[in-house]
Amino acid sequence: MKAEILSIGSELVSGQNLDTNAPWLARALGELGIAAAYHTTIGDDMDDHVAAFRLAADRADLVLTTGGLGPTQDDLVREALAKAAGVGLREDPESLAAIAAFFARRNRPMADRNRSQALLPEGAEALPNPIGTAPGVWMTIGRAAFAAMPGVPNEMKLMFAEQVVPRLRLRHWVERVIVHRKIALFGKGESDIEADALDLTARGHVPEVGITASDSTISFRIRGEGLTPEAAWAQTEETAEQIRSRFGPLVLGEGATDVADALVEQLKRTGATIATAESCTGGIIAHLITAIAGVSPYYLGGVISYSNQAKTDMLGVPPELIREHGAVSAEVAAAMARGTFERSGADLAISTTGIAGPGGGTPEKPVGLVYLGLATADGVETRRIEIGPEQPRDIVQRRSAKQALNWARTTLLAWPDRGASR
Amino acid sequence: MKAEILSIGSELVSGQNLDTNAPWLARALGELGIAAAYHTTIGDDMDDHVAAFRLAADRADLVLTTGGLGPTQDDLVREALAKAAGVGLREDPESLAAIAAFFARRNRPMADRNRSQALLPEGAEALPNPIGTAPGVWMTIGRAAFAAMPGVPNEMKLMFAEQVVPRLRLRHWVERVIVHRKIALFGKGESDIEADALDLTARGHVPEVGITASDSTISFRIRGEGLTPEAAWAQTEETAEQIRSRFGPLVLGEGATDVADALVEQLKRTGATIATAESCTGGIIAHLITAIAGVSPYYLGGVISYSNQAKTDMLGVPPELIREHGAVSAEVAAAMARGTFERSGADLAISTTGIAGPGGGTPEKPVGLVYLGLATADGVETRRIEIGPEQPRDIVQRRSAKQALNWARTTLLAWPDRGASR
């Protein structure tokens, strides 16, 4: 059973508009146990429509199209479906009545062109659209069932749920349930993590396990399948447990999609408070933390000590320390973390100082060199990281911010639950 | 001349991750005068790879693929290209040396699996990847030229610009030049701005003018076409001048894509320095400023005074002011801006305090209510804005941050050039 999703519109294929319908439909199908094998996007060209429909009719069992059902000259789907099936078009009286009623409800005259939206290929069924003018089309071409839906997301989603899914159940195409479980990790490269999980990601492993990297965060995706949601979930359990026990502190946890969420989970668990001092990361750490709702009790505040003067005035970093070691140094990172810890009263303070680039690098201190500092009641530690001199400014900033957040997270892992004595 | 874009990865076809590469490539091709006729997305399945490559080789002249070049078992593109072309794979010594050097620069051992990334189909050329391990592949299959690029957006974009585009020029596929000139505006709604520009955005206007809104920034996009970049540019000149004169201080300027860039341009022009104090925006203002390279001389630093204690300790906001008026008040916004102005020594200080949501709103102070403060040697002013109680946290944070940046920008517009007396 293979499904194909076809997105139609010149504004999509040219990249002017982002297509959110196709990923939505792919996820919706996935949850019903139907795998989308292909997405195809085409523009408003009749030959491309007919060729794409024929190809889909040949390689897929189910074809979902979105877009191209409007009243204008570049809406070609109804006609192209008829051509691909080798049949004619007829006017559907019920659809015409529904379109007329739609305009009447809004006290607007129905334009002549909207009449074309009531046309259907011979043998096709109309899919009612209670919230728009364009009815959808349900028909068979070759081996495949086609559902042509509008491109307006709300109309498409309602039509999919109310009209398409019941037809899939009637055909017994929807019986099994598929769940995707995602476990995010941070702190090692994708190839290192994969090397430790080759048994899990091997082809033919049940359940199927995929691995992806985004912005240095690595995610395992486990695909479970079963007759019920519970059974599908149960199929993933052992593999999820293997990943958790094998990668230990690298695991951000399952709810957490990234390092900041996972850190905030630890702050909530331990009841600890945090403060930040940022130089090269320029506020990203604070931004990533405060993007999370409900963090106020745990995040006391932060300083962006971008200039040397600010490091001294706002954090008490001695000017002679900066003169002797330079602003980008372990000594200054430590003094920034210590100053923030002492001035904020937080349980934990993190700091960054580095060279974000593209200018400012030297052979000894290249672009991408960042020192992190972490202060707690136990003292201050520093780490030196290199993001690589060829990385652009935003990557140096984001990755070093995430490293700092992750250091705070792994530090908190060893702390007791809120209220317990340490 | 038809181009096809192929996005590869089970995380894409299943809808788990949003594909931003395909729209980016479609737009980049469009600017070169090449129309993308198809996008196709497939998962990590060898048969689907080979079938999609053969189909693309048959219906397109140029095929751009992204993804599937990593070192793991589900990265199938190199092998699938060889199968689709009916050739074998060979190890490319130069690519292997580049991959080894990449790891050496990071002082990390190269995993055995990374060796597979140096494999190339017979007759193919490697496309160097200076910022990642995966080299790309350039080869001909059937009638089509294939460029296989990594899925990591930064690596893909660099490879496209430095390796693919020059090869398109060599083939004379890129001859006419299309330029898109973008003029960004901030400070009024899209419909208000559009109403004042209906003559320019009308169908058939030469050059074509589009209008888009993103995150409250409105952009006019003027499309010029010609045989040379100069001719294409000249076609846009009169329209650009009309927009500049019609919208005056709303215009962020042409280099500036958003408010922060435009503010930094004004800082450079006037030589003024700025400092920030953020509560509800939690570091976004600092982040937006420090994302811009070369801002160090102008941005002294900032404070994220997230807790009331931090407002008092770090900025000298009197506790009784917070008790009397609440942390979200014009009085506290003013005290934050004044404290930052005095403590930082900057020429201009901006502050934010508000309710980002989703919790914490009251009938008098709903979610989305934000007070801004601005302090200069002339004194302190405040503004009250409402982003609307139904907006999500990130929109409230971003829009209020941009309003604060824009206030600083428009203030600086009246200041003289650096060195001139005020």
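The mean pLDDT of chain B is 93.
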